[in-house]
């Protein structure tokens, strides 16, 4: 199936894994695919998303914001002992390089090699639905547009809820369908 992905769609899959890794997530979810699609979309899809106020910076910020800092509870527990976890983090990052503290605590962290992060069931379903969208449009390739339609068709995920804050999903679907029809 991957051989039918456009260059941008292939980049989106790679970027989804990178996004999940950067956020410290165990699986690639639909929200990571959304960030990656926004980041690697072609000119027309990017313009369509921008018309609705969907930008890479905004989507990344909103997804990262929803996760909070995983060390808040640890910081609260260490504070009565006189340990300032923020200061410890700053010192580790200063002495060992930016992100060293977080890297050491990631699953499989401590080294420079990233392990492969698997796709969640929901993101696999999104890619399956993207393939169905390509078939529906009678296209023998799969692009970021199809992945976005797969996200919209998938329904109840963090990614679709986030998109719905910016745009009516039915309207976005109509606009993306029109882009794909024009490309045919």
From TrEMBL:
Keywords: ATP-binding, Hydrolase, Nucleotide-binding, Protease, Repeat. Residues 2-182 form the Clp R domain. The keyword Repeat applies. Pfam families: Clp_N. The keyword Repeat applies. GO terms for biological process: proteolysis. Gene3D superfamilies: Clp, N-terminal domain. This is Clp protease. It comes from Mycolicibacterium parafortuitum (Mycobacterium parafortuitum).
